[in-house]
Write a structure and sequence with these properties.
The protein is α+β, with helices and mostly antiparallel strands and 171 residues long. The protein is built from two helices and twelve strands. Helices cover 15% and strands 33% of the residues.
């Protein structure tokens, strides 16, 4: 068996190192995108047209001046497992939607999870429960749908849920 020269061994080692470096450089890293939205109906993979449960940043005594909102709100439809938001992989890309209050006043662009003080159910047919924990756990409060042709009723969250709210479910 013939011995390899030192020069040949160096050439092979350099070639192997270059090949390994080339494969590292050509790998495509995973992509990630995060969006702040004021409604779960803005999430690409969810189906709904508009939110009918409104979470407001302030208690009802501070939310309105006359007939105008002076606080921020976010709207939701259906079951929301976590007010923090939702994520989904699409191929190698991770897309995340974080739920935030709109830019209307107090609480503008704050995260919804554990920051709401009042709720109004504007649905004409759907009842909801808001929960202390994500995944519909812990203390909850029931919100009845509005009566036909009536305005939405603004209700303070109970003390156990005020600024401690994480999910909602049809009731």
């Amino acid at each position: 068996m013939k011995k390899m020269s030192t020069r040949a061994r160096i050439r092979i080692a350099v070639a192997a190192a270059l090949a390994a470096a080339g494969s590292l450089v050509s790998t495509t890293p995973a992509q990630a995108a995060t969006y702040n939205v004021t409604s779960n109906c803005s999430v690409a993979w969810l189906t709904c047209s508009s939110g009918d449960l409104w979470l407001l940043y302030n208690s009802k005594s501070l939310a309105l001046e006359g007939n105008h909102y002076v606080t921020s709100w976010a709207t939701f439809y259906g079951n929301v497992e976590n007010y923090e938001g939702t994520s989904r992989y699409q191929g190698s890309s991770l897309t995340t939607y974080r739920y935030v209050f709109n830019g209307n006043g107090n609480g503008a662009w704050q995260y919804v999870k554990n920051n709401a003080a009042s709720v109004q159910n504007c649905s004409g047919v759907d009842n909801y429960r808001v929960y202390y924990n994500s995944s519909y756990g812990g203390t909850s409060q029931y919100f009845r749908h509005r009566d036909a042709y009536a305005d939405c009723t603004l209700t303070n969250l109970i003390s156990a849920l005020k600024n401690n709210n994480a999910s909602q479910h049809f009731a």
